[in-house]
Amino acid sequence: MAPRTLSLTAYMAFARGTPGSGNAAPLPDRPGGPLVWAHAAGVEQGRSLASLCARMGQMRPELNFALSGDTPAQPGALSVTLPPESPAECERWLAALRPDVLLWNAHDLRPALLAAAHKAGVRLIAIDVTDSGWTSPAPRWLPDPAAATLALFDSLYATGTTVVGRLRRMGLDPDRIHKGAPLLDIAQPLPCDDATHEELVTLLSGRPVWLAARLHAAEVEDILRAHRRAVRLAHRLLLVIVPQDEDEAGAIIEAAGAAQMRVCNWDQGDTPDENTQIVLVEGPEELGLWYRIAPLVFIGGSLVTGTGGHDPYEAAALGSAILYGPNVGRYLGAYSRLVEAGAARIVRDADSLAGAVSNLVAPDQAASMAHAGWDVISSGAKTVDKVITDVFETLDEKATA
């Protein structure tokens, strides 16, 4: 018996002493039809996995989903709590849930649970396999069961060549390892009326445009101050302001009206002309249009505390270079990924924002950043497509077996 198999055998012997039914998770009420079980550890991982499940549900409405860990609740999906690491309890729990596929987006391994799922014929798919350490409930005096547990997976989607090489050196089957990109929480691109878009492109006649999207009222003075400075270097520069919601719009409209700049109120039927310096939009309903118009976007909710920022992928998916403030805790992973790719840049205040706008509003600069952002989005989308194909092929094979 190989040492790595021995490590899992030793762990299973240890796990048999784990408390059982007294601490067991409630058994799930399993619906009829095929079922995909999705488990994530981490807020961003959970959101991305929930987004993937939502997309699969749209493509195949007959699918059922069971969500665990940090995967957020979704309408119509089961929310389940994992059983204790007792082989008997894991087998009992899986016999009730009867999943067809498991999507595992977590580095915290559960060897007894995963071994029971493998034994039950569940297809095990690991997503976002990175080069970070794997953990398990195994005590330090036991051999590390990570390699033997990873060998249970039918597919492992690794985030880069380095990770692929590491998995192969661990002795995993190369045919099960797939090079991919991190799974991203990307919704469908925001819609846009094509006729309005064409009309605006013609109307603006190549003017440089930047957008303050999902802006909060507490940020508007910094945005207006930055625009005044940037206009000194690019006198035809146009700012479009889109508030986060109606609650923020009132104060933003008042501040823009008092800015002593030429303002066009889009929702009141005004049309921007050559003299317009600010286009004011009262809500985010047409944000898809403005992302397509503006090559450079500042994402609001990031210069103020308490909001956690807003999703940068909705701008990157529509070809925008991104600026943002330091307060993006809810989406820190997404912003960090875009910064690493060269698709986003952080600003601290009105002065640094004005400098960034002046430097990046040039078409070649914004286009370079936007292209980098699109690479991030498209690489994540390719991985999503591969995972969905993997899941659907499994379900089709089981349906015809």
TrEMBL record:
InterPro entries linked to this entry: Glycos_transf_N (IPR007507), Glycos_transf_N_sf (IPR038107), Kdotransferase (IPR039901)
Pfam families (alphabetical): Glycos_transf_N
**Catalysis: reaction(s):** lipid IVA (E. coli) + CMP-3-deoxy-beta-D-manno-octulosonate = alpha-Kdo-(2->6)-lipid IVA (E. coli) + CMP + H(+)
Q: Which gene encodes it?
A: waaA_1
Q: What is its main location?
A: membrane
Q: What does this protein do?
A: Involved in lipopolysaccharide (LPS) biosynthesis. Catalyzes the transfer of 3-deoxy-D-manno-octulosonate (Kdo) residue(s) from CMP-Kdo to lipid IV(A), the tetraacyldisaccharide-1,4'-bisphosphate precursor of lipid A.
Instruction: Kindly tell me the pathway this chain contributes to.
Output: Bacterial outer membrane biogenesis; LPS core biosynthesis
- Superkingdom in the source lineage: Bacteria
A GO cellular component term found in this entry reads: plasma membrane
Query: Would you tell me the protein name for this molecule?
Result: 3-deoxy-D-manno-octulosonic acid transferase
Task: Choose any GO biological process term that the UniProt entry carries and state it.
Answer: lipopolysaccharide core region biosynthetic process
EC number(s) stated in the UniProt entry for this protein = 2.4.99.12
